[in-house]
Amino acid sequence: MLKTFKNTSVVMLAAIVIGLLIGCIDAVFGKVLLLVSDFRDAHLIIFLPFLALAGLLSVWLYQRFGGESSKGMNLVFEVGQGKRQEIPRILIPLIMLTTWLTHLFGGSAGREGVAVQIGATISHWLGRLVPIENNSRVFLVTGIAAGFAGLFQTPLAATFFALEVLVVGQLALPALLSALLASLVASQTSRILGLEKFSVPLSINLSLSPLVIVKLLILGLCFGLVGSGFAAFLSWAKTQASHYLINPYTRIVVLSLFLTLLLFLLESGRYVGLGTNLILLSLKGGPIYGWDWLLKLVLTVLTLAAGFQGGEVTPLFAIGASLGVILAPFFGLPVLLGAALGYSAVFAGATNTLLAPILIGGEVFGFANTSYFLLVVATAFLVNHQYSIYPLQKR
């Protein structure tokens, strides 16, 4: 009993330290990324033509200094599955720098993959210093949660994302307390350091009649198909790109030139970067076109298949929100509710996670709408299980 109490106390103390460190790094990464994005938007015509050069520099940095760091999220899953013992610490500066480059020069990518990798690397490294047996997976999950929470400031969603993402349908419950504590600390730390949380409280009074429930279930089906379709397309595109363009330098240059042309021609840079512009337009009543979600999906896949660093989650939020704006009127549902539901449910379909997307809905849009998110996200989750944006995710 005394030993258990001692071990738990040590893990909790370590979780606090982990949360503080990761929250600080997430704040720096997130604030610089926002500055970079704003600067790019103001000078897009100057930076976008040099996307291929940024790609070459990113590949060179990984080839010269990165070693196995180029495997990215796969390293996290390999550690979680016991296939490797550590994540190279050089990953942290490399993933931050190359992601800033991706966004400065107009690549269509996200940011959560960076935060998760940073969190997992720091936490797993510190966990090795804690004299407790079999703590590798606990600290890995704790770091994933803290990384996600520090960037998005959704600690509940971050906790359950970390618990459920490694194995579909199975929660890493031994890490629950440490993951939650580290998430709360990381979230508060990044907020104190000036990184703002994105939230749009919605007040929806929609009676859950049988007809409305059916509409929500169909909407969830649509979102789930798009999320799983994104994951399947991403896997296919990466395979084809590496098959036909074996040399990573050639691959990133060829696809970057194609991307640059598309990003210029398609709405003058509407689809560069994270996609937060589409999210804001969707939730603030701005103009959303019927093809926005599809073009953002295709361009994000091409960016990641080329070899640029970043993530998928924020683009998935943008894809889901803009798709929800288009689909909601066909079902006679409030447009803002459709955008909010798409924001969470496409993420669920692409990651094979259930609890985290529901909690994201609550933490971003308000828990008064939980019943709507539960129906739609559960349907989107059940549609998939075959594809995931994380290739090594166990099913």
Automatic annotation (TrEMBL):
Location relative to the cell = Membrane
Membrane-traversing stretches: 12-36, 42-62, 138-161, 167-187, 208-237, 249-267, 314-333, 340-360, 372-390
Keyword terms: Membrane, Transmembrane, Transmembrane helix
Primary location recorded for the protein, binned into one broad class: membrane
The record, for Pfam families, names: Voltage_CLC
Q: How does it sit in the membrane?
A: Multi-pass membrane protein
UniProt xrefs under SUPFAM superfamilies: Clc chloride channel (SSF81340)
State if Ligase is listed as a keyword. Answer: no
InterPro entries from the entry? Cl-channel_core, ClC, ClC-type_chloride_channel
Q: Which domain of life is it from?
A: Bacteria
What name does the UniProt record give this protein?
A: Chloride channel protein
Tell me the organism: Streptococcus dentapri
